[in-house]
Amino acid sequence: MKLEQAARQLEALGKPTRLEVYRTLVRAGPNGLPVGRIQERLGIPASTLSHHLHRLILTGLVTQERQATTLICRANFPAMNELLGFLADQCCADAGCGAAADEAAA
C-alpha cells in the first residue's frame, strides 16, 4: 500500500459520522446493508449518508452493489486489512518492542 492511499483512507475515516457509517458496515459483515437500513440505524439524513458513503467508496473502503432497486453497501474487508497491515507492519522496527524485544531479552 502506498502512503498516499493510506492517508486518503485515514482522512476519510477522520469524520465521526463517516467512521460510524464504516463501523456499521464492518459489523454487518460480508453481506453488507441496504442504504436505507444504514440510514435507519444511524438516524442521519439521506443526503448526509450519501455524501459520506461516496467518500468511503472513492477511497476503496466501501463497495456498493445495486440489487434491483436497492443499493447494498459493504465494507471492503481486503482494503481494511491492507490499511491495518500498513499501519502495523513496521511497528517498533527501530525500537525493538513487542515480540522482537521479548526475544532479545530472553
UniProtKB/TrEMBL annotation:
PROSITE patterns: HTH_ARSR_2. InterPro entries: ArsR-like_HTH, HTH_ArsR_DNA-bd_dom, Metal_resp_trans_reg, WH-like_DNA-bd_sf, WH_DNA-bd_sf. Residues 1-95 form the HTH arsR-type domain. The keyword DNA-binding applies. It holds the Pfam family HTH_20. Keywords: DNA-binding, Transcription, Transcription regulation. NCBIfam families: HTH_metalloreg (NF033788). This is Metalloregulator ArsR/SmtB family transcription factor. It comes from Chelatococcus albus. The lineage of its organism: Bacteria, Pseudomonadati, Pseudomonadota, Alphaproteobacteria, Hyphomicrobiales.
